[in-house]
Design brief:
Elements lengths: L13 E2 L10 E3 L6 E8 L5 E6 L5 E5 L4 E5 L2 E2 L18 E6 L3 H4 L2 E7 L8 E9 L6 E9 L14 E3 L4 E6 L18 E6 L19 E4 L4 E6 L6 E5 L6 E6 L35 E3 L5 E6 L12 E5 L4 E8 L2 E8 L5 E7 L5 E6 L2 E7 L2
């Protein structure tokens, strides 16, 4: 059930400071008065996209330009990891998300999504691959492409894409509509505008909703525009997704098997030029968003906060904003979003936010580095 968001009027206590230097911004929790600040830990990557950690605490970072970086013992490696697949770095395309397998210590797999030019058509489409790091973690080896969307297109928008593992051996990833809203999202025989689910080896789960039916077996849900954030709810295990709307109508959705999330048949947005493309915000058989933004904030990565380092935020959802360069703290109660608060304004276009194994929240911004949220002493 959706909750209408009228305007972003949350009151935030922020103190200004120079980005890319020492502590960047401060925010005070409305409940207990705890203040937080940001410290910049990485400045060398212009457009960081994906963040994840290996069991020993080393962090993997993707740069949209096509490089995979290792951050270890407080510093970035001198050179990017070699052996990364060729990416079509155009428009919104490039090297996208990265995730280590939940059982990395046993199997060594890491997973990447990227805009792949592989195929006979010009351009690219989103692919999911897995690979391993060599012994000194300087190169990718044992590469396997698990899924490649078709066909390629030279359009430079809406590749998605985030990667999420559940607790049952499945890997989820999203692919945007690739700029073909009237062709791809509502057609389950076509890639793009979909959420996909595979077994972690790339095989198809036999309980996927369209197995044995007219549709692509890998599709888990459809009718999405451009997925930019995905996370599992820490208590229910449900898959939550956020996506860009057009002009207005950015959404947070709770993704369930076989569901149609309506794009572009229903939307709370309009065309960028101000004209309308649909008169409907609801239709039978199409899901309503759990939350939406109008005007758009251009949501990016998101994560549920479970760390004891942020007691006032535990159980809530943090979402980054590309458009407004801040974080949004969404209060989650009874399995849904009830309100929101803006945090850390003017920190740069937020591309991703992840909670690390050390319990800290890490925020990747375009041009302003990767930051860590710490408590004020």
């Amino acid at each position: 059930m959706y909750k209408y968001l009228s305007m972003l009027l949350a009151v935030v206590l922020i103190t200004a400071c120079n980005a890319n230097t020492e502590p960047d911004k401060e925010a005070e929790s409305a409940d207990a008065g705890q203040e937080y600040t940001m410290e910049t830990i990485i400045t060398e990557i212009d457009v960081p996209w994906g963040l994840d950690w290996l069991p020993d605490g080393d962090m993997l970072v993707t740069a949209r330009s096509g490089d995979l970086w290792l951050y270890s013992d407080g510093s970035l490696a001198e050179e990017p990891v070699a052996g990364v697949p060729e990416v079509w770095s155009n428009g919104q395309g490039g090297l996208l998300d990265v995730k280590a397998h939940p059982n990395y210590e046993q199997n060594g797999w890491i997973y990447l999504t990227y805009s792949s030019p592989e195929g006979s058509e010009p351009g690219a489409n989103t692919a999911l691959m897995r690979a391993k790091l060599n012994e000194d973690r300087t190169s990718l080896v044992n590469q396997e492409i698990l899924y490649k969307a078709e066909p390629n297109t030279e359009r430079g928008q809406h590749f998605g894409s985030r990667i999420v593992f559940d607790n049952n051996g499945h890997v989820f990833f999203g692919i945007g509509d690739r700029g073909a809203r009237d062709v791809n999202p509502q057609d389950i025989t076509r890639d793009a505008g979909k959420i996909y689910r595979l077994n972690d080896d790339g095989s198809i789960p036999q309980d996927n909703p369209f197995v044995g039916k007219e549709g692509k077996d890998a599709i888990f849900a459809y009718g999405v525009r451009n997925p930019q954030g995905m996370a599992l709810h820490p208590e229910t295990g449900e898959l939550w997704e956020n996506e860009h709307g057009p002009r207005g109508g950015d959404e947070v959705n709770i993704i369930k098997p076989g569901n149609n999330y309506g794009w572009p048949e229903i939307s709370f947005g309009i065309n960028y030029n101000g004209t309308s493309f649909t008169d409907d915000t609801a239709k039978a058989g199409m899901e309503q968003p759990e939350w939406y933004w109008d005007p758009s904030i251009a949501p990016s990565g998101m994560t549920f906060v479970t760390s004891e380092r942020y007691p006032d935020w535990q159980g809530d959802l943090l979402v980054g904003s590309l458009k407004f360069s801040y974080l949004v703290l969404c209060t989650v109660e009874d399995g849904g979003i009830t309100e929101e608060e803006i945090l850390f304004e003017e920190i740069g276009r937020v591309r991703n936010i992840e909670q690390g194994p050390d319990g800290y929240l890490y925020v990747a911004t375009e041009g302003n580095g990767i930051k860590r949220i710490i408590a004020e002493q």
